[in-house]
Amino acid sequence: MELFTWLFLYVTPLTSSDRCFSDGIPEGERANLVSQGSSYPVGNWVNGWDAGFAAGEVAEILLKEKLGYNVTQKVGPNTVDAFYALAGCRTPTNVTDRGCGPDMTTRVHLSTEGWTGGYATVWDDVQTAYPATAPRNLGNMGYTGTATSYISSSLQEFAYSSEGYSLDFYRDYSVAWRDPAKFFTVPNQVTSKLRPCDETILVDSVQMNNYLKQTGDHDGVTIQGNGDVHARCFDGHFWRAPVCRSNSACLLYLTGGAGWGGDELLQKATFFHMPIAWAAAKAWSDFTSIPSELNVTFFWWVPDPTFLRLAPVPIVFPPHDRKAWKRGDRRSLSKGISIDKYISKDLASLAPDIEEFMKAYLLDMEDVNSIMLKKMNSDMSYFDAACEWLHANNEIWQAWLPDKTKCFERFGLYNEKEERYVESRADPTHLACHACPPGFHSQSLEDTHICLPCSPGSYQVSGASLACDPCPLGEYQDETGSISCKRCGFGEYQNATGQSSCSPCPAGTTTLGFHSQSINDCGCKDETINVLSSSSNFECQRCGEGLRCPFGSSIESLTQGEADLGDDYVPEVLQGYVSHPEDPLKIFECRPANLCSGGTPGQCAGGLSGLPCASCEEGKAWSGTKCEECGANWVGWAVGTPVAATGLIGAYYFVNTEVMTKASAFQACLMAAGIAVNAFQSLAIFGMMTVKWTPKFESASSGLSVFVLDVEILGITCVTGPSNFLRFLGSASAFPLASLVLVACWATTQSWSKICQCRRLQRLQVRPWRLYQTAHTIGIFLQVGFSALGALALQPLMCYRHPNGQYSLLKYPDTFCGSDEHGAMLGVGIALLSVFVVGFFVYCCFGAWKVPYWSSQQQQHLVKAFLFLIGKFRLDVWWFGLFLLVRGLGFSLAIVLATESPQLQVAIASILTSIYLFVLTLTRPWKAPIINVGDIALCNALLLLINQAVHPNSPVDLQFADDFSAVIVVLIIAILSLMGALCLIALIFGRRFGIGENLLNLTRVGHVHGKVATALKECVQELMKIEENQLSEDLGKMNIYNLMALQGGHLRSLRGCPRQVLGPCNSCGAFRGFDSI
Hints:
Pfam family, one: Ephrin_rec_like
InterPro entries: Growth_fac_rcpt_cys_sf (IPR009030), Tyr-kin_ephrin_A/B_rcpt-like (IPR011641)
Organism: Durusdinium trenchii
Transmembrane segments: 634-655, 667-689, 728-748, 769-794, 824-849, 877-898, 904-922, 929-946, 966-989
Distance between the termini: 112 Å
Signal peptide: 1-17
């Protein structure tokens, strides 16, 4: 109420001693109030502003002349003084000492035109401090105090008649629709009567900071050196709305004081595109005169007579939004203040008819304005103005006077005999006035009132009500006579009061619960997201893979990571996925999933960047958990590369040892090492699958990725830079370069042997490399790394699909399939696949086909060139090495052929492993039984592991699956470790303790060779005595498995002629000499 303080003049208005009504009760016949032997007049506290005088005089005239009471009038400057006066305080206008105390007896009994809402705290304090005498609030006087923007009716009429502009609605001022400034005075004409900007709220940092926060209008403010926010000042006096800053087409908006209502008007002008030039009048006289002289919009409050002569028209803005105002949003109307009437606590017992009169006493805003306008337009006093109004509105005030059959408001006609409310008094017998019950309201009928049931859309919970209350926001009522309203259900809202139904939420949206009060309470359903920026406009789209979208999800809440409803309703990118903040719904899937931390768009783990998260900044390398500075990583590569080349050369001498039909301990160790490398390669390839593995297996597989030449963890990017092509080229060239090194060494040693003295080389024990041994060395190298070769060559073909429809390489997710870089990688991969994968496999197939023939022809150098393929297996299953190659390549092909079908990948891997296990179990191909047992156990473990892949929507216990997969990995390592340990023991201690052969064969062999030889010789001698026909007949009686054993190899071993494989031979030399190559 501070903007009204100029009105609070503590003066007594001029009143007339004459009666208003000729038939009014004369002064001598009027009565006093009597209490405990004391007699005194009714005290009427009049609030000292025009509307207060108008309302007070009307009540006082009726109290004197119609109810017959003596009345004394006391005037106070504000509503607060009335509170204390009615409570009985002796000096209610003294703000330092109100004169309150115990045993107070009030001499003030009623007051009108009180602004309770502006002093709610003081009212509560009085009620608490003086409960015995605290006044009673009889409620609203019939109108509400409001403050808003106005224009004169003459200006409105001119605009409407000339161009059809109403100018009474805020949208009429939007420059998007109209040009309202043409009807108003140019702002610069009145600058002499305006305050400079620095004397107004334009320099109030708190209010201007709120304006900036709500509107984002940075151009409309200036930031001071100390951080304060001031409104931008134009021409020293004005603030211009955004829509008219670039030109002079602004209309003048005038307010008083330091800028009454300015904080809300600035927001309204910005939000509603109103071409406003806001300014504050220099003095009160300027504020009151400018709207009368010029065409302006101006700030005003009612009830007040200042501008009544202009018949001002309010500009209608959106109704008050309490929640919005609470957060500083002022685009809706300010909240109106109820104008109330009060009586003292003892008035009900002293003069109940006055209480009834005061209860019924209601004025409309038009009535108050009429009285004030009469006072302004003539020299009459407020008594005379009130009297004239009473004579002109007899039907209104008659209803305020108590009458048994003339029911006041809140009451209605009631037939006491029939015990029911009636709607007619044609038969007044047994009629009385009873308070309207709950579910009813009092309505006038001629000069009385009746009680009617509340209509649909309204309710009344209490009795004695003037009207039914409209159903509040979020509720409705479709029945009559209701004492409550029904709440809107799910998917419905009601943003207006007094409705008989609820409005459905827009398509695709719903509400979080019941009682929704605005379309803003509607939100997109779970798993959908609003892609429009406005909170009241909706276009809900399915979130799809990679997003978690709870109720009410929107693009803003996704990118900002917060929601009005709380953290549980914040949409987020799931772990394992990422998107760009500027296009948050374009989701990329990360491989592996732990590289993307999820949350808001753009979040990568470990310092990674790009889409998807796959690369470190230049100068950094991925360590397995985060991007780290390269440091001296290049030194390791510079040293490691020649060391690896040296080791490769040394391998020539290491692997080219004598091969026997019976595996030596050294050969068994090499077999165990090869199986271990192959197993680790398989585990690494499993990790490359698009299958969702358990976390522990993902971690283990990632650590083994170096076995498929994934050397990123070794800091390869420190050498190649961030280019995926160079990284791939570096890995892909490892096998070709290694093969080239071995070939170069062979060529070099051949040249030396011709250039240098052979004897010198012999003395140095340096012999020229042999071509077949070089081929054997390269074959071992390629065979051991065949799974890695296949996986590496097929990497450019392993494209997986992102949720957004794009495709990336599994190994290099930030290389998109179809890009130029992918094309280059594809070319390298196809070349590697053609030469070193398919070419090598064809080479091995050719060797497996020709080796028996070469052996029979004593072409031992050709046989020795393929020892890498056949040297580890028994003679009758020399071809088993091809199965090893097919299995390793098949795992990688499963990823290529079924990239988008993880379950099919698992199925293919299971089938390949099962076929390999079947053939392995059937043939026992390895020369060393310990290797056969270990390989069989290893295959079973791999089968168990493959089937630990987590299938989508599977009810499997993830914790159990995670733990079980860890157990299987440990089991695989244990199998390999045990197999390797036994081979090493046989190698180191075999000859010394005589246990080597027993360990490799998993049985005690002993010195049985002689006994077996004697038994076989005797058996042969016996067989020679039997006729062939008789022998054939006897063999026909044998068990089929025994015959198959003889046919499948045992008999051939005796004769040295593998007929099952080679067919009939003329001699026993098909593999002659192969027992020692």
